[in-house]
Amino acid sequence: MFGNNIKLSDDDKGIVYSNRVRLGNWFEAATLEEYKLNIFLEQMKKGGLTLARFRKMTENLNAPTILTQSSGSIAFGSKISLYAPHVPSSDPPVEGKLGLLLGGHLTSNDIAYSQQLEDGCTIIGVPYQPPALSNSFIITSADYCDRTGEPLKYNQEFLLILSSSKNRKEPLYVRYDPDPVPGLCGLFPLYLSKYNVSNTRWRVLPVQRPDITRFEQEGTHVHVNQDVVINHCSTNRNLGINLGHWALGFFGKVCAPLLKTCLDVYGRELPNNVWQIHTPIATSTKEKST
């Protein structure tokens, strides 16, 4: 008699009970939320969430490393960074802020399946920072001989291996393809490749000078932290920085590399074609004490 006079609110009308449902809808909803939370926590532990992937990627790419110390010539087997000291490190340029490092890059698509640099990842120019696994490389011989410890000479072919991939079954080499598939390379012509082919071979050339020719310097030792030109053996193009192409990355703006010989009216390389094989300068104990 009183049941017919009960009026349900709009909120209560969505809650339906029947003898076929053991649990009330409210309890089912609470149980479902608990289940979703458990799934979320499990995915976070396994690194399946985008935020967890980003944190893992940051940890892998920015892990600090120690470069090979040298106060003179550079040798095969040395861990180095490629540093362009005469180009702006920001967009737009800021007076007094110069220098870009060559380093590996992960895109938003790459992070979905890997949190470390893999085959096919692009190479970019990043503002100067302390040595990390993403921007350090190992110089190794290109003639299939173990030349570890031998000094690198001008015009001698070598390979650049990403330092973090040295102990992998398939190391990653810095590669440039002169005729890539249209639409695939985009702004970044350099990339990491697990295949050691002719397109992964490089050589160091001295910068153009008025007092001495490159021919006279061929065969002499390459010194660290001095201006040089990095030349791609297969195409005879010089490695450079494309200051007209900046893109937004995970850690700020990054600059695209360039494979082109850029000369001024006097036949000298422009600043974006000039590099340094960068390593810390070794300081003797005697110098430290003074």
Automatic annotation (TrEMBL):
- Give an example GO cellular component term for this record: motile cilium
Pfam families noted in UniProt? CFAP161
Q: Tell me the domain of life.
A: Eukaryota
Q: Biological process GO annotation list?
A: cilium assembly
Q: What protein name applies here? A: Cilia- and flagella-associated protein 161-like
Protein's gene: LOC111352902
